[in-house]
């Protein structure tokens, strides 16, 4: 979780969130707080409650930051609403995302904001450098399949913009970013994110995979561990130009003066207003396009040409322009 926080911080250039209102929010809920690293960082600015199913938070925290152990899929019981509700990287955590979105709406003050961020499956690869039969592709496909089978789809928040709108939110905005899955890009910022992504998956891949594949897909523990080892090997191949698309969605609960409940039932959803711009909007992290000039860009290749893992020789194109010389 702490590695993920660092990756998000690099992506957002040090900002704790994308939504402009997070800078002025005085009462904040951090859903799925994990180790509490985000809540503690935010606790310097306002009152924040971090809630999680697992008691893995530190015993020390700023005086205006508290932690609660609770199941967010059960009815929420907070007596005072929040100005800002934050949710990040909780794909597959909820059996009924629409119900959770409605709980979020009901527990916001009028004019309050909600932000959710997460990655998008399947993984991205623009140049075909990751073979279809690779462990990396197989792992992504299996995780998505297992999530579907157990009723907890691993989908990004952008998949639920219709549910967010149906709940009553307005000013719905989506920002899109990219996380390389290793250090293949030339760009220093992408390369740094890729380095932390390798560490993040290296330390957490068993925790992500064991439960889903053994309980849902019927795999043995030995089979799962073998797959995880193979995925680690693929992550070390810098000629594999893989990445995650990452989406952040934020939205606002309308003020009571904007939409009277009685008139809303008669006239339908509230009209959208123009969302305010962030005080310091982070630049979306996007993969640059390759130059149009002649000559093929080069990429990092394995030292041993006789290795069975050597990539096939083919014309270079697409995102290979970003890769190491």
UniProtKB/TrEMBL annotation:
Presence of keyword Acetylation: no
UniProt cross-references to InterPro entries, sorted A to Z: SAM-dependent_MTases_sf
Biased composition (Pro residues): 272-291
Start and end residues of each stretch annotated as Disordered: 259-325
Superkingdom in the source lineage: Eukaryota
CDD domains with a match to the protein in the record: AdoMet_MTases
GO biological process: methylation
GO molecular function: methyltransferase activity
Keywords associated with the record: Methyltransferase, Transferase
Recorded family membership: Belongs to the methyltransferase superfamily. LaeA methyltransferase family.
PANTHER family: 2-METHOXY-6-POLYPRENYL-1,4-BENZOQUINOL METHYLASE, MITOCHONDRIAL (PTHR43591:SF24), METHYLTRANSFERASE (PTHR43591)
Record protein name field: S-adenosyl-L-methionine-dependent methyltransferase
Record lineage: Eukaryota, Fungi, Dikarya, Ascomycota, Pezizomycotina
